[in-house]
Structures are given as structure tokens and as C-alpha cells.
Helix-turn-helix domain-containing protein (Streptomyces dubilierae), 494 residues
Amino acid sequence: MAGREDGDRTRPGAGPAWAQELLEHLRPAGRDVRRVVAWLADAVEGSVALRDAAGNLVAGTRLPLDEDLVTDIAAGRIASAAWQTREEHLRLVRVEHPSDACVLAVSRPAPFDRRASEVVTHTAQVIELLLTAHESAAAGHRLRRATSDLRLAILQLLMVEDTVAARRVAAGLWPGLLDADTACVYVVESDPAARDRIVEDCLDHTRENALVVRCPAMDGHVIVVGPRETTGDALKALVGRHRDTYLGGSVRQSLARTATAYGQAVSALAVAHVRPDKTAVYTERTHPERLMDPAALRAWTARLLRPLDTLPHHTRAELLATSRLGLEFTAVAAAKVLGVSRNTVRARMERVESLLGTDFTDLTVRAVVLLALNTQIGLADVPPASDTRAPGPHLADLLSGPALRTWARDLLGRLDADARNPRRTLRAWIAAGGNAERAALALGVHAQTVREHVRGAEPLLERRLLAAGSDLYEVVLAHLAVGDLDLPRLHPCI
């Protein structure tokens, strides 16, 4: 007798301790329906199967059952059932579920005594709680995922300058979020593994008064579009409390220039890595387009982009926005930000190339076209010219102004003190389309030498060159302005 009692105490579910054992499965670390079903099988010394309404096995081992009886229990026509044969005793119990009921089937060779019956009944209740909790957690996860996808969709609309649609989508969940005409864009960088926590912290710190998006292009980046002045201070406070977290911010831009602001934030992020407070805001410097005659620049832009005017408005806007992102970053990064394939980005850019009759593999072409695309954003507020076919300023006219040439000479003159002559290398590298091997062949040096010279020119010019973008294109325009590079091939009237 004593030996049998000792044996009972080691078996799961034996004696009055079974209730405590069952409750342990409700602890956060033990919430697993399959473990509960396995525990029940040991507790009653039998076999257990948990099936959903469709007959699929959720947990346990499959048992031969009367399918009509299982259907009646799952449908709620019968709450429970029991029968026996010479070989086994069987119990079927309905388990409620938020989406659909399940059936718990328990088979054992011995009859169900009072203890076994209580174990089955209470286990069914625990399984019901676990299934409900799992369903609630899954619903919460789906809601968070849908909200995150919606935020990304709004950002993508802003990136292609469709502010009307972006406001319409945002109004349903975040009324007033995009009512402002301008906003700053921030990029928070952290370890990719910590990004989900950073996203939640960004939402808390900005009190959902900003658009917080997981960057689709960079795993460790969180993009924040903040129309309100307080957003920057809130994010700075967040970065101060997290190690290995950095913040880059743009200057205030119109919502239509969200893509431009994003590029500024990324540039500022590089500076933030060397700042003690790990934050940096893009510093407005003298950009070449600001040294050109505004009216002449607008007229030239309208004429350059005139071949796209025959397209439907939506198609034209889509092509221009995609090309601007593709030129500012890369086709791959632009595709991730816009939520389309890289082939779609390349196809749109190739169509723009074809309409403009030019070649985007030429860095001078890329620089000039991006100048026009950035200028084009402001043309919506400018009355269209009566005839964009009429003779107007050429690119050479825009680049020949004394203010622009002075700026270009001062910028490139920073390279003259270097005995390695990086200015010559940089000129050859740009002419070769940014290809170090072709530039090395033209100069008669090693490709690594070309890369080192270009990399060494970056701190002198205070611009990133090896990463395609506005920094590089400003340097290209400077070379064009001083005559160190030939003007790109555009259609004759441009």
C-alpha cells in the first residue's frame, strides 16, 4: 500500500496536487495547449485528442471517434458525451473558443472515477482560457500589424507627393495628424533587434502626434514624420535614454517634399554618429539651385519635363516621384520605400529616360535631371508658362551665373591643397559614371587609388560621394559650372 501511494505522488495529476499542477499551466511561461493536453493524458493515464470544429487535430493523439457525435458537440447541440466498450472508456467535452468550438476527447482503459472526471472538466476550462488568450493575442498582433502597414502606406503616399490621399487615409485613425502643410522627417537608428521596442517608444514619446514607420529599406531605422514642433525634442529625449541609438532630422519641408526631407534626415544621421548627444539636424547650406535665377530655373525645368506633360496626371506624378527617389537613393532602396518591386522602379525610370531622350547611367544627366525634379515640386504654385516650346534659358545659362560659379570654384578649390590631386581623380571618376575601374584605366592608376582619393575628398567637400544622392550631384553641378566636365546630352532646346 505504501509503495502504491509513493508511486501515485510521482504521477502527474495524482492526489489533491493535480489542481495546483493544472494551474501552473496558466503561468505566462507555461501557456501551451499542447503541454496541457499532454499533462491531461498522463494525469488520467489515457489518450487525449483536442480537435477543432473542422475535425483537425489541434493537440494530442488522434482517436477513433463517432464523427456525428463530435459534430453535435462542436455545434453546441450536446455539451458532453460518454460511452464505454470492453477495451476503453471515452469522454467528449465541448471547449468554447472565440472563433469556433473545439472538442476534447479523453480515452482511458479504466472507468472515469470522480477524480478523473474532475481533472477532465477543469482541464477543459483551462484549455478554453488558453485558447481565448491566444486568440486575443493573435487579434492584437493582427491589429498592430494592420496599423503598422497603414502607417507605411501613408508614408509611401507622401513619398510620391500624393498628400491628398495620404491625408484621407490618415484621417480615419489619426484625425488631424497631417493637417499641417509642413513637417520635419526624422530617422531613428538602433540595433535591428531592438527596433520594435524603439517603435513603441517613439509612439509613446510623440503621443501619436507623428507618423511612426518601420523603415522598409533599412532594418535598424524608424522613420518619423512630425508635423508638430515638439516631435524633435521628444525623440531627442528618447535617444538619450537608449544606448547605441542615433537620431537624424531634416529641416521643415512641405508634405509634398517628404522624400527630400527623408534624404536630409539620412544625411544628418551620418553626422549624429560622431556627435556626443547622438543627434543631428540637417544643416541648410548653400545649394546650387538657390544661386540660379528662380524664374529661369522654373522655365528651364518646365521645358525639360515637357515630354511628360502628355501623360495622365497620376501617371506623370508617379513617374516623377519614383525617378526622384531612384536618383536620390538607389532603385532597390526606392522600391522598398515605395512598396513596389525594384523592376517596377527601373521600368518607371527607363520610361522617363525614354521620354526625356537621355541616359541615367551618366552622372551629369542624373545630377541635372534631379535638379529639375526637385525644382518641379515648387512649380505647382507657379502659373504655367504660356508656351513652354518657346525659346528659353538653356542649362548653360543656368550654370554660367557669377554667384554659382563663385560657389563652384570655392567648393572644388578645397581639393587643390591635397598633393595627391584628388580633384583630377574625382573629375575622371564622375566622367566614368562613378566606376572606379574605368576611371583608373583612364588615369593609369589602380582602382583602389581612385576609391581612396574619392573617399578622401568627402571630408574636404563635406559631402558624401560614394553613396549616390544629392551630395554627389551638387559636386557634379559644381564641375559643370566651372567647365571641368562637359554638359550632359539633353534634347537640343535644353
Remarks:
- The chain has a mean pLDDT of 85.
- The first strand starts at residue 47 and ends at 52.
- Residues 114-159 form the longest helix (46 residues).
